[in-house]
Amino acid sequence: MTYLPAMPEEHLPLVAGHIAKHDDVWVAEDAERILGFLAIDRSEGDGPELLAKLYVEPDAQNRGIGAALLDQAKSLYPEGLELWVFQRNEGARRFYERHGFRLVKLTDGAENWEREPDALYRCP
Predict the structure, then answer these.
(1) Which of 11, 101, 109, 123 maximizes the CB count within 10 A of its CB?
(2) pLDDT, tens digit, for every residue of 25-61?
């Protein structure tokens, strides 16, 4: 996402610590390295669970890794998932739409840290 500022390398341990605090985290890996991960935050009420993060290394994309991680989450949370994605991230938006997510609302980004217009999706 070249439209976002680069993250300083010294912040990476903080990000890793934040990822570990999610309720559920799944990792896709081969024998040598992590290829991607998915993180879920469970709802505190009756609403859908939040798919907080889904990331696949660029050189591992288009191999079904993201779909497999997403299918795992959908099978464990059949009552539904929701997620936020930047409006500019058209590839991610198409991916989620292909996998049954539907657009719920668009925002101007005033409520997110990046101040980037985003979109809320929900499945089912």
Answers:
(1) 101
(2) 899 999 889 999 999 988 877 778 999 999 999 999 9
pTM for the whole thing?
0.84
Residue 86: partners with Cβ closer than 8 Å, 6 or more residues away: 1, 3, 92, 114, 116, 117, 118, 119
Question: Within a domain: residue 4?
Answer: no
Q: How far is CA 119 from CA 43, 58, 85, 103, in A?
A: 19, 22, 5, 7
CA separation for the pair 4, 48 (Å, rounded): 28
Q: What is the number of structural domains in the chain? A: 1
Buried b (16+ CB within 10 A) or exposed e, 73-95: bbeebeeebbbebbebbeebbeb
CB 4 within 8 A of CB 89: no
